[in-house]
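Task: complex structure prediction.
Instruction: return structure tokens for all chains below.
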Amino acid sequence: MALKTPPINEVLITGSQSYGSIDESIGRLVLNQKLHKKAWYIMFTIGFLGTLLLGTAITWLLYQGTGIWGNNIPVAWSFDIVNFVWWIGIGHAGTLISAILLLMRQQWRNSINRFSEAMTIFAVMCAGLYPILHTGRPWVAIYWLFPFFNILGVWPQFRSPLMWDVFAVSTYFTVSLLFWFMGLIPDFANLRDRATNKIAKVIFGFVALGWRNSNQHWHRYEQAYLLLAGISTPLVLSVHSIVSFDFAVSVVPGWDVSIFPPYFVAGAVFAGFAMVLTFAIPVRRLYKLEHLITDRHIDWMAKITLATGLIVAYGYVLEAFFAFYSANTSEYALFRHIRWAGPYSWAYWMLIFCNCVAPQLFWWPWARRNPWTVMIVCQFVSLGMWLERFVIIPMSLMNNYLPSSNRPYYPTFWDIGMYAGTIGFFTMMMFLFIRFLPVINIFEIKDLLHKIAKAGNPAVEPVKASVLAGGGE
Amino acid sequence: MSGYGSAGGGGPYGMAAEFDSVEKIMDAAEAARDAGYRVMDAYTPFPVHGLSEAIGFRDTKVPWTVFLCGISGTFLGYSMEWYTSVIDYPLNVGGKPLNALPAFIPVAYESTILLASFGAFFGMLIYNRLPQPYHPIFNTPHFDRASQDRFFICIEVKDPKYDRSATRTFLEGQGALNVWEVEE
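Output:
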């Protein structure tokens, strides 16, 4: 490898840790099921109820059709596409942490990459529901979307961003799943070896695929892992760019904005980190993982959130500037009568507050290091990013070239219900993941522990002597 | 402390030494290579950089597989778009060209990534011959700690320089916690 690993100057693992203590801290969440008490059951139940709501909403949608939503003409896309983009955006942080931070040799990613990758997979599952279901008759839409041989004599329109979406999102889901599973194989082997419960041993043994920690295997594993990271990086950048093309290649005022691809990608990372922090902070407290997901990690994730928030804020300024500079009267009318003032302008101003004002708190170190402020700001960011998609999608569609075509949009119970349902499904999957799969990447933490010990940096807390010299325990 | 590996049923597979730190196994691997042993493998809880070189293991099959799968992904993706949009179902949309190269890029790009990632994942598994539920090394006592906090090096009987007592003496001299004989 040409790049040198930067020296480890920060305390990334606290306390006096050894390989065994790492195994124990992470493995006990899975191997000792009694650890999951009331909090887990409450969150799981909430998630489960949400999933039931989601199932109901989908069934009713398939039975009655998309008329149960508030979509109308001209606002043909609303909550369905807003939520699609919101969920896909949230997924992007996982790939950024796993792939991009790996390529940049940022060792601190090792404790957060596993559950952020899981988050990506569950978020993309939630997102993927929408493009399929919003077609109205998904059983027919299959031949519009997937290029398979059929007797109808037609093929999908590959020049359309809606088709690009099909390939981008399905590729993104598949690659994320492969990457995540690959990372899990050695940890499954670890759990297989440490499990005392017979069922756990058999199941983990099965999914570990016979992994025996051989150096030859690690050699090819590391090659594949690095290459997957290298592939995932342009993938994640392309997926949200392609999603932004759904809007940017059109002529709708407010959609035909050339800054959208980078602005959407930055916004996705922004929303994604907010969601990672939303889960990381309570879970590390609940399961006593603060020595692995340290205050440093929270600090740096908050910094990334701030940085991407500034890029997003820049995007907002540019959008307004383009409206003025383009001399496109319809685009200017959009800002003047829909965003800045009008019946829905409260959404726009709340967006500005949530995305541009609230994250500025992260300039101050005390705000980044206080878990409560970070949690609160992250909720604002999640809300703000949802509002951003709301402002871009239904609010732009309300404003047409001919004012006579304008029509307001109101969400219905099923719009909101399905959205709440996806949040419930996501929560349920995350908590199942926390209970049955290793939340942190065990072998990567051990690797980091060894690197810390070897660096012998006085700024870093000493690790147990056994890690470096061996002690024959 | 040394002894026999638990019954595997077959003849001898090799001799495994158990270490408890990265530094010790790196030294042992280099010493084994210097001593002329070639047919051996190391077992570590996490990938140890430099260990492949120390043992003398080189392999670039995975990168080549990823590259070739990626290229075929581009080709297959673009061909699919070209065939369907130019030959089989040509649609004149606003006078735009049938073979719309800029518009065809996203799908071809995503197919590249998809096939390349299949190459990486399945290639890694296939070249590693996984899933492989049984391997003689699992007969080594304490081998369950190979995924936890122990580092093993195993010199196989197939190695021309393998000798039951000489290899054992050599491994014990490397500071191993234990040296085991492993049965097939």
